[in-house]
């Protein structure tokens, strides 16, 4: 279940946003100040932030920059009366999208759904279910916490993410990851590398699966 943080100091508006989106199956963290948002962001998994520009204890633009120094969580900016400068500054600071008040509930639902879709952008960034994988900067996070991945694990992960929804043959992974040395690589090396990667990404109780073994063929990335 995706968790949305609503950072809006207007109590009625904050509650209204939650009511509008609750039927989509999301859960929420309601914050009315930046201080509350900072605490919530550090203490629990957040999949999307709906952020008001003006808050009683600070500016939303500064908070976006603060978030981007550590997290890749999608951010939708909430602005008033189509303030063009706020929109431009917000997007430049790192917001993913914006919506102006008063807004259509259908538009709100649609824009939230777009940001919560599993996606990989042109810059090599892939996000899904709390995972933030930036293959350009080689920074990887799960629920805001850094993931320590070896170069081999990073290469395997990139191949699977780029081909999500499809089964990638073992031979293709080996040829790509161990380019030039594939004829000397034991296939067991791939099995071990994938096992280690799973151990870093997936829950020990098996409730969360990202990498599926297609026996006799290869591996596939599981779409959540």
Number of strands: 15
Strand order of the largest sheet: 2-1-3-6-7
Assess the beta-strand content as a share of residues: 25-35%
| Residue-averaged pLDDT | 84
- Give the SSE string: EHEHEEEHEHEHEEEEEHEHHEE
Task: Return the structural class.
Answer: alpha/beta
Shape: elongated
Largest sheet: 5 strands, parallel
User: How many helices in DSSP terms?
Assistant: 8
List segments where confidence is low: pLDDT < 50 over at least 5 consecutive residues: none
Protein model, in words:
- The chain has 224 residues and is α/β, with parallel strands linked by helices.
- 39% of the residues lie in helices and 25% in strands.
- The protein has eight helices and 15 strands.
- It has helices at residues 11-22, 34-43, 60-68, 84-93, 105-116, 151-162, 170-177, 187-201; strands at residues 3-7, 27-31, 48-52, 54-55, 58-59, 75-80, 97-101, 119-120, 125-128, 131-134, 139-142, 145-146, 167-169, 211-214, 218-221.
- The protein has a five-stranded parallel sheet with strand order 2-1-3-6-7, sandwiched between helices. It has a five-stranded antiparallel sheet with strand order 8-9-10-11-12, with no helix packed on it.
- A hairpin with a 3-residue loop joins strand 14 (211-214) and strand 15.
- Helix 3 (60-68) runs parallel beside helix 4 (84-93).
